[in-house]
C-alpha cells in the first residue's frame, strides 16, 4: 500500500521529493493544493479502493506522505 500511495503522490505532486522525504509538508512546500487533494482522493479510490470523504478528515491528517500512509492504513483495518 505504501508504494502505491507514494506513486500516486509522485504523480500528483510531479516530484520524487515525496519519496525522498516522507515527512515533507505537502501544503507548506506547494506540492499539494485543494485541487490536488481532490485528485488524490480520486486516485486513492481508483487504485486502492478506499473511498475518502473530505468531511471525514482534517488537513493535518494528510499533510505529509507518512501521515497520509498512516491515515489510510488505519482506515483499512
Structure description:
Helix 1 packs antiparallel against helix 3 (34-48). The protein has helices at residues 2-13, 17-20, 34-48, 65-75. The two termini are 13 Å apart. 55% of the residues lie in helices and 0% in strands. It is globular. With 77 residues, it is mainly α. The protein has one domain (2-75): ACP-like (Non-ribosomal Peptide Synthetase Peptidyl Carrier Protein, Chain A), CATH 1.10.1200. The protein contains four helices and no strands. The longest helix is centred in the middle third of the chain and has 15 residues, at 34-48.
Fraction of residues in β-strands: under 5%
- Rg for CA atoms: 11 Å
What's the CATH first level?
Mainly Alpha
Contiguous runs where pLDDT drops below 50 for at least 5 residues: none
CATH superfamily: ACP-like
Largest sheet: none
Q: What's the mean pLDDT score?
A: 94
Total beta strands = 0
| Share of helix, binned | 40-55%
Query: The CATH topology, please?
Result: Non-ribosomal Peptide Synthetase Peptidyl Carrier Protein, Chain A
Following the backbone from N to C, one meets helices and strands in this order, namely HHHH
Q: Determine the N-to-C terminus distance.
A: 13 Å
Number of domains: 1
By secondary-structure content and strand pairing, the structural class works out as mainly alpha
Q: Which outline best applies? A: globular
CATH architecture: Orthogonal Bundle
Number of helices: 4
Amino acid at each position: 500500500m505504501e508504494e502505491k500511495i507514494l506513486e500516486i503522490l509522485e504523480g500528483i505532486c510531479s516530484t520524487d521529493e515525496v519519496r525522498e522525504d516522507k515527512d515533507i509538508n505537502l501544503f507548506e512546500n506547494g506540492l499539494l493544493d485543494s485541487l490536488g487533494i481532490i485528485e488524490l482522493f480520486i486516485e486513492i479510490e481508483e487504485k486502492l479502493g478506499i473511498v475518502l470523504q473530505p468531511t471525514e478528515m482534517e488537513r493535518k491528517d494528510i499533510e505529509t506522505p507518512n501521515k497520509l500512509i498512516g491515515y489510510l492504513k488505519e482506515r483499512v483495518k
